[in-house]
Amino acid sequence: MPLAKSKKSVGLGNALMNDRFGKGKGSDRKKTSAITRTNHATGEQYLVNEKQDASWVKMRSVTQQGALDEFLATAELAGTDFTAEKMNNVKIIHNDHRNIYLLSAHEERSVLGKHRMHKARLTVPRRPEWDASTTPRELDVRERESFLNWRRGLAELQENNDLLMTPFERNIEVWRQLWRVIERSDLVVQIVDARNPLLFRSDDLETYVKAVDPKKENLLLINKADMMTLRQRKAWAKYLKQAGIAYKFFSAQIAKELNELRDQEDEDEDEDDAQPSSSVRAGKQPVADASSSEEGNKNANSEGAAEGDEDTQILTVEELEDIFLQHAPEDAGADHKLQVGLVGYPNVGKSSTINALIGAKKVSVSSTPGKTKHFQTIHLSDRVILCDCPGLVFPNFAFTKADLVCNGVLPIDQMREATGPVGLVTQRIPQRFIEAIYGIHIKTRALEEGGTGIPTAR
User: Fold this and answer.
1) Sign (positive/negative) of CA torsion 366, 370, 374, 380?
2) Which residues are within 8 A (CB) of 380 and not within 5 positions of it... i.e. 6 or more apart?
3) 384-433 pLDDT, tens per residue?
4) Residue spans with biased composition (Acidic residues) (predicted)?
């Protein structure tokens, strides 16, 4: 006998449909405080909150808000309209054409004045003084106390003066590696990115090196200089000389290409030595154009040396090592090896510079996979030892978060807002270059239409 079927239709699918479109939903919608209104001029619909909160709700103390709550509260105070587009997309309408994630010219000048005023407070944490009688426990306590005071000072500087700072290293163990590198090095080389040297340079680091020992020397090595034109190198050379900063231009990429070219030439010579009579039996004359190709790379490497002077020259590996040796202590003994400390931000090419120096010397170095957690000593030659410090992010000022994204300080994969960085790129790079590189046509709003005629992120 078949089972009787229920008169009521049950099931997960029906339950979900009833939950979404079932009875009572209309009454729930009526209870909401938001009312849909229509703009008759444009035909767009938007939501208006007509309900006023009770007085006791308005007087509630709010000491901390999440990102979304803060955004909605700010938008409500500013009287921003939210226009519904298609499904559930939300569009924020601004009456002006200014990007709220960037600073105006007046605001940028004001912030720059603050940066100059408080520049001296962007310090590197100092290692407390110690001697042979200091126990490891005492030194550890002193270091932690000094480091904590340093972090508190930076936090106070940022909060009390409404300043934006770049992310900086907060792990004392990494700073301890820097302290040790400075203490044992005769020359401290600060490697910076040529695309924005001042952002990656720490003024106070050079002061700290001299405070440890006045005999120690500083050198600013501007890596990736092949990305700069001769005119740009001349401008930077003039600025750095006027500021009294010892500097040199270098390109780890060009040095790498030269090393690979030399390796290829050595392999070709070995093959020719192994088969000396093959070309003779074939009646062919050997063609030796390797030296000419190497000369071409050297000419590209030292672009500007013929047109200007050595102040704008991009050094080769051999020339860079000669610069290191020029900073050797005068009172050092014959058996003393020059110790060169290499310091810099992550991703400025510090490792590439070391690899270029090692590759040119054919030095065998054990591979160290992963991020370097401790400083390493590399015997470059019988006269030079390299002290490689782990990548360090020094504290510095910034104008906006868009600056941090464009300078590679903040990773792009963590970016939640793109109009700021894109707007900054359109401000700094001419429209014709962007269109030529990407093969696109950027539409701009003319002055007659209320625009500026300049590309924006929109």
Assistant:
1) positive
2) 321, 357, 358, 361, 363, 386
3) 999 999 888 899 888 888 888 888 777 788 778 888 888 888 888 888 89
4) 263-274
